[in-house]
Amino acid sequence: MPVYAGEAPLRKHMYRVLSAVLLVGLFATIVSVRAAGPKTETVKFPSGKETIEGYLAVPEKPGRYPAVIVIHEWWGLNDWVKEQTQKIAEQGYVALAVDLYRGKSATTPEEAHELMRALAQDRAVRDLQAGYDYLAARQDVNGRIAALGWCMGGGYALQLAIHQPRLSACVVNYGALPTDPNDIQQIAAPLLGNFGAEDHGITPTDVKAFQKTLTGLGRYVDIKIYDGAGHAFENPNNEKGYRPEDAADAWARTVAFLKKTLKYEAK
What does 22-54 look like in DSSP terms, one character per residue? Predict the structure, then answer.
């Protein structure tokens, strides 16, 4: 096909314009996708005589939603916990990560150990109760509130279930388990647990004994022990112990469990 004089520069100009339009469209698409994500902010609320903070993620579309209290590991309320809080909000929940360390976080196991050791259990439970009350008072929360945590936070999710009879559901990822029968008897919320078979701190024997006790009390409990997995297998920052397939399965179980326990249609 012959090309006439002046046609080649015109084609080049048209290609440049078209490329620019496509780039602008792609950028607008990316921006619109990001804009559709959860709204996030740091919020303050009372806990006893103190004012504490939490990281809040709310679904982009206005409405009334169930809520989830997110409880961090011994590292503190770091970027990974904030990412999980956003992921939960993307599923259609008002998610609040309560900052139990008052703004501090750790980057080494030694620092994390010191922060966790300095955290009194009664204060932590009080802070989580305060988070529950904060969510319950919000106009965009429909009254169904769950607790979810990993490691130290998993243990505190159970403590909240012991002390808060109105809790609608509890998700424990390799968290310390109560052994006092009187405490276990107080757990009324349906419970989902994800544990590692190679976790030497929270052993499969302990997990099975806890599950047997809850089942004997007539409670709803769904526990899975992952073969070959150790402690903290869901966190990619755990370079030696992270197990992506097991982490994805635990997340899928969590999503299905929260939907079943918080998003049911009242009859």
Answer: HHHHHHHHHHHHHHTS-EEEEEEEEETTEEEEE
Nearest of 8, 62, 60 to residue 36 by alpha carbon: 60
Six token digits for residue 61: 């579309």
Domain 37-262 -> CATH class: alpha beta
With vertex at residue 42, the alpha carbon angle to CA 152 and CA 134, rounded to the nearest 5 degrees, is 75
Q: Mean pLDDT across the stretch 69-80?
A: 98
Q: Where are the domains of the chain?
A: 1-36, 37-262
Q: Mean pLDDT over residues 154-166, rounded? A: 98
Residue 15 has pLDDT above 70, yes or no: no
The pairs formed by 241-247 with CB atoms below 8 angstroms and a separation of 24 or more are 246/196
In this predicted structure, the answer to whether residue 114 has a pLDDT above a threshold of 80 is yes
- Which residue in the block uniquely carries the two structure tokens 């469209």? 25
CB burial string 201-223: b at 16+ within 10 A, e below = ebbeeebeebbebbeeeebebeb
pLDDT at 265: 65
> Would you state the structure tokens that stand for residue 81, as one six-digit string?
């916990």
CB neighbours (10 Å) of residue 142? Answer: 16
Give the residue with greater pLDDT, 138 vs 20.
138
Per-residue pLDDT band at 243 (split at 50, 70, 90) = very high
CA distance 102 to 58: 22
Phi, psi of 226 (to 5 degrees): -90, 120
Which residues pair with residue 196 across a beta bridge?
226
Identify the CA nearest to 43 among candidates 107, 115, 96: 96
Residue type, 48: G
- Which residues neighbour 14 within 8 Å (Cβ) at sequence distance 6 or greater? none
What's the token pair of residue 226?
A: 């992952």
Q: Which of 171, 168, 216 is nearest to 188 (CA)?
A: 168
